[in-house]
Amino acid sequence: MEIRNLKNGNIGLLGFGLMRLPCTGDYGDVDTAKGIEMVDFALAQGVNYFDTAWMYHNGNSEYFAGEALSRYPRNRFYLADKMPLMALKAEEDVERIFNEQLKKCRTDYFDFYLLHNINQAHIQTVTSLKVYEKLKQKQEQGLINYLGFSFHDRPELLQRVVEQYDWDFAQIQLNYVDWELQQAGKLYGILEQKNIPVCIMEPIRGGSLANLPEEAAGILKAADPQASLAAWALRYAASLPGVQVVLSGMSTLEQVQDNVQTMSPLKPLTDEERGVIEKALTAYRKAGAVPCTSCRYCMDCPQGVEIPKNLGVYNNYKRATAQSNPMAKMHFEMEYGFFKDAERASNCIACGACKTLCPQHIDIPHWMKTIGELYEHGLKGQ
User: What range defines the domain where residue 236 resides?
Assistant: First the structure.
């Protein structure tokens, strides 16, 4: 496993994101046995950075982290957790949640700890509730080794955040789609200029870059028939010099094996390979998919609409139609038909609550209306 050095730590370049673990049923029902098998394999191959959060798997990701990792000596791994800014209502919440996270993760300290999802909506919470100051005290007490933040917003706000506070690292979304679409290139540039080590999230964009439209996939496969589509995306992020760790939210043992192989050791992208990715990106954009990573920050919807599932089904339909797949209509109707009534896009009342929470800045009410009308008046009426 490729190793990157951060002060006193030797960190495996591939990080294990505990956000998309295998489940036995709903999103919150983690399949512990399969998940532990994946963690054990990853650790044996040199993966030592594990990233969890308060909200992942409806709160059960931290419990899983505690169960899976506590079977190993504490110096075998680095554990990252996050303070959920979206859940804070009062100053005392910081202390309460932090202590509960320690218990859930079965640890006495966090190696890496982040202010979760700093954006325009949450920056006031950081200031008014003195979140940074309280966590800095935790660091001084030895309960946090590295203090950082995850970020989903515009470069102007990031510039303000890195100038206002002193950070050990930062986590941003970066992949070859979002380099321009979400201004990830500018975000990375700001952090590089400030010499802030970078942790990459969503390098495979919620799995969508491992399931490309046929034309885009064909371009990458023609360039390297042996490489998986995910490998191209991981190498794109990992080839940047300021990157310490690239997180992958892996759901199967096969994904862990493929990702480990990609990073053992890393082969940085050549200029020629970057040109191949640009051609694939052009083909990807033509598919017209909504840029949703299924991060579920928009959930829970007050009306019960399953926003990521709706966007996922719609994106599948758009990709299938772009490929002239004759089964596109049938698959869309079948997948949409599995939804409960409340989960369907047509149940959206356009309150806009989700729109302010979306890290991708997607106009969710617009797409819910589009998807609902497509099913009710388009496909269903054909």
Answer: 3-284
